Amino acid sequence: MQMDGTGTVDMIAVAKALGDETRARIVGVLGVRALCVCEVKAALNLSQATVSDHVRVLLDAGLLSTSRESYWTLYAIREDLSLEILQFVSLLIDQVHTQFPEDRAHLADDPVFLCRAEARTGSVAGHPRALHRKTRRT
């Protein structure tokens, strides 16, 4: 979490991170549940690179936490944010859900943990699974 010179949360960094419509929409879908990048990508109909870039800004501002699930990283809104920030994020999520109801609808249409479901079928958007595996370098 970014801190200012006095050791408190850098509210300017938080405001900058949440001031972008795409990042607000990402926070909106993360308000539903923890998601991996591919689930956010599907819900918002954005490229993986775009989602990753915006998630990085939210992480750098200290708004998100991460956890690992097999090969994938799940992102969630931090539970240890200050009460003021949590209240603001809650209001933001409500507004995003009102303005972009299709985002939540897309989430509801896709299976939970979309990446795992796609991995079981052996393809992601028609591409062979091997193209999406992490490879080890020796």
Give the tags:
mainly alpha; 138 residues
Provide a descriptive summary of the structure in words.
This protein has 138 residues and is mainly alpha-helical. The protein has helices at 11-18, 21-30, 37-44, 48-60, 83-99, 101-109, 114-121; strands spanning 64-69, 72-77, 123-124, 127-128. The strands form 2 sheets. The protein has a two-stranded antiparallel ribbon with strand order 1-2. The chain has a two-stranded antiparallel ribbon with strand order 3-4. A hairpin with a 2-residue loop joins strand 3 (123-124) and strand 4. Helix 3 (37-44) packs across helix 4 (48-60) and helix 3 packs across helix 6.
What's the short version?
The chain has 138 residues and is mainly α. It has helices at residues 11-18, 21-30, 37-44, 48-60, 83-99, 101-109, 114-121; strands at 64-69, 72-77, 123-124, 127-128.
What's the structural blueprint in terms of helices and strands?
Layout lengths: L10 H8 L2 H10 L6 H8 L3 H13 L3 E6 L2 E6 L5 H17 L1 H9 L4 H8 L1 E2 L2 E2 L10
Antiparallel strand pairs: 1-2, 3-4
Q: How many β strands by DSSP? A: 4
Q: Taking all residues together, what is the mean pLDDT?
A: 82
Q: Helical proportion? A: 40-55%
Distance N to C terminus = 35 Å
The order of strands across the largest sheet is: 1-2
The assigned structural class equals mainly alpha
The main sheet comes to: 2 strands, antiparallel
Order of helices and strands: HHHHEEHHHEE
Radius of gyration: 16 Å
From the spread of the alpha carbons, the general shape counts as: globular
The helix tally amounts to 7
Low-confidence stretches: 124-138
Share of residues in strands: 5-15%
